């Protein structure tokens, strides 16, 4: 009986340790998904709006199903393989140090199905100046309501 209790205790400790460590790996500041970006790869809306207004050289990709920010190329939901492939083709041949910004804004970042596959692609392709537009709530709240520029063709 003592041997069985010992084994059960060891199993219980092992399970608790496993749950704790897996939980630590997936809990992030944006929810329960693992993020392929670092905090310094997030760009705030006001910063991007200023970059747009000063005509800084960059590539902006809308990888969601929302309105296009001024200068953005609309690709569609990056959670769909064909749209992720569109992004891959656009990136092909670009210098690895180009400034590339992706965004979605369909929903809160913790729930967004599009930003992680797109940013992972940038990471896999070894882009050194890649950023994700930080839209904690959505594009409407964090960009449009603040009066930041949109492509006029999409209005």
From TrEMBL:
It comes from Pedobacter cryoconitis. Keywords: Signal. Residues 1-24 form the signal peptide. This is Rhodanese domain-containing protein. CDD domains: RHOD. Residues 69-152 form the Rhodanese domain. InterPro entries: Rhodanese-like_dom, Rhodanese-like_dom_sf.
